[in-house]
Design a protein that fits this description.
Radius of gyration: 15 Å
Shape: globular
CATH architecture: 3-Layer(aba) Sandwich
Number of helices: 4
Number of domains: 1
Order of helices and strands: EEHEHEEHEEEHE
CATH topology: Rossmann fold
Largest sheet: 9 strands, mixed
Number of strands: 9
Length: 180
């Protein structure tokens, strides 16, 4: 059943899925990637060890980009170019070490968003005031099992019907979790 939630873009579609391993996390992200379009912004919320970088690896594979995906904790940004001409680039940000939105602007990261790339930001809460109001939010949470994660996908109002249906179809093989 579709759940409504609020993001900066208004009420949106929310669905949650269980990953039982890092490999499943990558597969969920890989299957999610085709739903994305150039210019999309994904904000990845979750604590340390919640699977955000593992999710990024699956996204990069699904988008068909070059380069090994690793945490950009000390470089803030890793740019991945498309394998095929015309495909989107993938910009993987990690804002954990940023202090505030001013640093985001000082480093010029705002200029990367949109265009011919999909941008994925870990620890976005540190720079949220500097980000566009339209984004897809992914909240990852640990469970009692150290290998399991629950991924909550939240689409903005304007995308909720189309993207929500596409997400349900893409992730049909995974356990859907009802969250209250």
């Amino acid at each position: 059943m579709e759940q409504e939630t609020t993001t900066s873009g208004g009420a949106g579609f929310r669905a949650s899925y269980l990953s039982r391993s890092p490999e499943e996390t990558e597969e969920i992200a890989y299957l999610f990637a085709p739903l994305l379009e150039e210019g999309d912004l994904i904000l990845a919320f979750g604590g340390l060890g919640a699977g955000k970088t593992c999710f990024a690896r699956g996204l990069a594979r699904g988008l068909g980009v070059l380069g090994e995906v690793a945490s950009p904790s000390f470089t803030y940004l890793r740019e991945h170019r498309p394998k095929e001409e015309g495909g989107p680039a993938f910009y993987h940000f990690d804002c954990y070490r940023l202090h505030d939105a001013d640093e985001w602007f000082e480093l010029g990261f705002d200029e990367y968003l949109g265009g011919h790339a999909v941008s994925y930001i870990e620890w976005p809460e540190r720079v949220l005031p500097s980000l566009p109001s339209k984004y897809i939010a992914i909240f990852s949470e640990n469970t009692d099992n150290p290998r399991e994660r629950i991924f909550h996908f939240v689409f903005p109002e304007q995308d909720k019907r189309q993207k929500g249906k596409m997400l349900e179809e893409a992730l049909a093989a995974f356990v859907r979790v009802d969250v209250v």
